[in-house]
Specification:
- It is a single chain.
- The protein has 226 residues and is α/β, with parallel strands linked by helices.
- It is built from 8 helices and 12 strands.
- It has 2 domains: 2-117, Response regulator (Rossmann fold, 3-Layer(aba) Sandwich); 124-222, Winged helix-like DNA-binding domain superfamily/Winged helix DNA-binding domain (Arc Repressor Mutant, subunit A).
- It has helices at 10-22, 36-42, 59-68, 84-92, 105-117, 153-164, 172-180, 189-204, and strands spanning 2-6, 26-30, 47-50, 75-79, 97-100, 127-130, 133-136, 141-144, 147-150, 170-171, 210-214, 218-222.
Length: 226
């Protein structure tokens, strides 16, 4: 499990990182609001711990970016701003949970365990549609104008990411991290092979959707441009 801590208190980050890693989590730390964009767009996380008061970009702006990117990663706001209006603002802007400093570490762990037990997106168990394509992630099946076909497990994992982030560019690094794991050694060309397989599947079922290559960045699932 991988956690991103976005917090400007360097000493507090070091302590929290140490304690989380003792609990078995892999942990990245970001101390600046603007730097958070790099971590969010280039890595995949299971939980994000987000402070509100940060240099250059505050927690609410980061939270809005996270949801705008289409990321469904659970976000726990961990902040000294504990007034009722602060809590409402954080939750209304997309936070999944809200903890006020100071807090007990075991309380934080309980909140993390709670969030990890819940599916990050309830849509995952349902039939999804985009353009002329219907997708059943739990059955590895896509259906288009010309019929249906079954996907391999890796094709299914890849298409699920595209479906939940359609019309958005997803970096190669993010795709590799989400599907094969951040520490898994894999040849870069393997991703290109699965993109090719998926494009062929879309063509086979007669879908007009396309997976566009964003040169030097990644890929985007999009409707055919008229």
């Amino acid at each position: 499990m991988r956690i991103l801590i976005i917090e400007d208190d360097i000493e507090q980050c070091a302590i929290l990182k140490f304690r989380l890693e003792k609990e078995g989590f892999s942990t990245d730390v970001c101390n600046d609001g603007e730097d958070a964009d790099y971590f969010l767009q280039n890595n995949s996380y299971d939980i994000i711990l987000l402070d509100r008061m940060l240099p250059h970009k505050d927690g609410i702006a980061i939270l809005n970016d996270i949801r705008r990117y289409g990321l469904t990663t659970p976000v726990i706001m961990v902040t000294a701003l504990g007034e009722i209006n602060d809590r409402i603002s954080g939750l209304d802007n997309g936070a999944d949970d809200y903890i006020v400093k100071p807090y007990d570490f075991q309380e934080l762990m309980a909140h993390i365990r709670c969030r990890l037990r819940r599916p990050s997106n309830v849509e995952n168990t349902h039939e999804l549609s985009f353009g002329d394509l219907t997708y059943k992630a739990n059955e590895n099946v896509i259906t288009g104008p010309n019929g249906s076909c079954t996907l391999s497990n890796k094709e299914n994992e890849l298409l699920e990411i595209f479906f939940h982030n359609h019309e958005q560019t997803i970096t190669r690094k993010t795709l590799l991290s989400k599907i094969w794991g951040a520490d898994y050694e894999i040849e870069d060309g393997n991703l290109d092979n699965y993109i090719y397989f998926l494009r062929r599947r879309l063509k086979n079922v007669g879908s007009s959707l396309s997976i566009k290559t964003i040169r030097g960045v990644g890929y985007r699932l999009m409707k055919e441009e008229s």
